[in-house]
Fold:
Amino acid sequence: MPFRFLLFLLICASGLWGARAASAADVTVFAAASLKTALDEAAREFEAQTGMDVALSYAGSSALARQIQYGAPADLFVSANVDWMDVLQEDGLLVSGSRVDLLGNDLVLVAFGTGTPVDLSDPTDLPARLGGDYLAMALVDAVPAGLYGKAALQSLGLWDSVQGQVAQSDNVRSALALVATGEAPLGVVYATDAQSSEHVHVVATFPEDSHPPIIYPMAEIAGHGGEATQAFRDFLTSESARDVFVTHGFTVLDTTP
Structure:
């Protein structure tokens, strides 16, 4: 079976699942996998306050954006970088004026188990720590966490020495799981991902200037949604939601459209 046709079938299957979820929910949200812990909590609070149901679908931002391009019934999209939101905006798939930069994050190197953070200023340190083992990362040419991670490693002069040992996953939570289960000794994930797991510790935080700013934009999808979607979007910019995001380690950005 040709790969492109198989990809189309997988996207269609995802769209059918989304259609079923949408039919049972007031709001269907496609969100970057790194948001799961915090957004699950925010959605529960919104549902308790309003009585509305929220369906949450998590994956890598690239996969979600492509599903939206193929017509998946998302009402709201929260991406882990601006590039994939730009793609949908250029395609005319966003509701005009609904886009805001919602959250920020940090990029970290994590290891299995417990330990003490160290300085990452010495670019020879990571290859020595890695030895002959694998470095877990999200897809480095598509998924935001992988793109940020590759940029940081290139900036620090590390990429050429470790790229042959990178174990790529389809999203950042999958990369985190490889480290949390001991399958990979080290991984590059967001600081919020590291905070969500008791089975990893932060070895180091990558310098902010080693990668593009980590920004999570949010926007409504054209042709979908309604009052419930607008209500949930407004809730995610409220003080209640801000408290949830901060508790889970995110930076809350200015949400003025």
Observations:
- The first helix runs from residue 3 to 24.
- Residues 107-210 form a domain with the D-Maltodextrin-Binding Protein; domain 2 fold (CATH 3.40.190.10).
- Residues 1-22 have pLDDT under 50 and may be disordered.
